[in-house]
Amino acid sequence: MSILSLLQQAQNGQGLANVASQFGIGTDKAAEIAEMLAPAISGAAKQKAASGGLDAVLGAFQGEAQGGLFDDASAAAAPEGQAQGAAFLDSLLGGQEGRAALEGVATEKTGLDFSTVQQLLPALAAMAQGGMQKNLPDASISSMLGGASSGGGGLLGMAAGLLGGGDKGGADLSMLTNMLDDDGDGSIMDDLLGKFLK
């Protein structure tokens, strides 16, 4: 299941509608943001893993601390949820500059006002992080983190596996790889990622 599918299926399929109602916008606009956010997260996670940050990527998906944000749109839309989502995006996108660029693109493409996008995007990111935490088994992440810290070719092998080729270092990356699938949906984000990711 991809990140976009997670968001679409959250809260018995009502997650996007529920979070949209928190900001007084239509479900279609929340769906548009989700369609841009999902490949941005997956592309950034892959790039971070390839540049030696696989442990940080895996760490963001370990545990279930943000699981409640996946199950409750009002919690994700609350200031605390937005702050968590913003921190998650900043960690993947290279800081506030990367997040601001994504917010700018989303504002332009959806026609929503910038202040709404600034709140909605982190709320959806918090839901996505929570969904991945709930769906990725901690045991698999722990084994991947253990392999990454054991030296040798483990980290490079796992990064190669995450990116779709090479030795996976014995760790099962299939579920994570599926979640980070870009969906092949022709999203404009695929073309724009390189402009603001470090």
- What is the domain tally? 1
Rg (CA only):
16 Å
Number of strands: 0
Rounded to the nearest angstrom, the distance between the terminal CA atoms is: 27 Å
Instruction: Please count the helical segments.
Output: 12
- Secondary structural class: mainly alpha
Unreliable stretches: 148-172, 183-198
Question: What would you say this structure looks like, in words?
Answer:
The chain is 76% helix and 0% strand. With 198 residues, it is mainly alpha-helical. The chain has one domain (3-191).
Keywords:
single chain, mainly alpha, 0% strand
SSE layout and pairings?
Elements: H1 3-13, H2 15-22, H3 27-60, H4 67-71, H5 73-77, H6 79-93, H7 96-110, H8 114-135, H9 138-149, H10 154-162, H11 174-179, H12 189-196
Helix pairs in contact: 1-2, 1-3, 1-8, 2-3, 3-6, 3-7, 3-8, 3-9, 3-10, 6-7, 6-8, 7-8, 9-10
Outline:
With 198 residues, the protein is mainly alpha-helical. The chain has one domain. It is 76% helix and 0% strand.
